[in-house]
Description:
This protein has helices at residues 56-64, 117-126, and strands at 5-7, 9-12, 18-22, 28-35, 38-45, 48-55, 76-79, 83-89, 95-104, 107-110, 113-115. The protein is mainly beta. It has one domain (5-126).
Amino acid sequence: xxxxxxxxxxxxxxxxxxxxxxxxxxxxxxxxxxxxxxxxxxxxxxxxxxxxxxxxxxxxxxxxxxxxxxxxxxxxxxxxxxxxxxxxxxxxxxxxxxxxxxxxxxxxxxxxxxxxxxxxxxxxxxxxxxxx
Length: 132
C-alpha cells in the first residue's frame, strides 16, 4: 500500500527561480526550477533525494490534461522508462506526484507525495497552466 505525504506549503523565489513545495510536519519537500526547455526536480524525504530532469513541455501538457479518476492514483507518467514523474488528480483537487527511479525489473525507488489543492494551484500558476 502506498503512503502519501501531503505537501501543504509553496514558496516561490524570484531571485533563484525555484518553487519549493513542502510541509511543516516532516522533512519532505520538492523543489523545481525551469532550465530552458527542461524542468529540474528534486524531491526529498529526510536524507533521501530523487532528482529528475524532465522536458518542460511534456510536464505542462500532462498537467493541463489531467482529469480526476477515482480509484486510480497515478494516471500519467512524464519522463522515460528509467526515471519518471507519475502524476494523478483526485476529485478533491489534490495532485499526486510520484518521482520514481527504476533500477531494473527487480525494483524501483519512489516518493509518494500529495499537493493540496491550493499548493497545486500555486504550482500550476508558476508553470502558467490555466486548466484544472
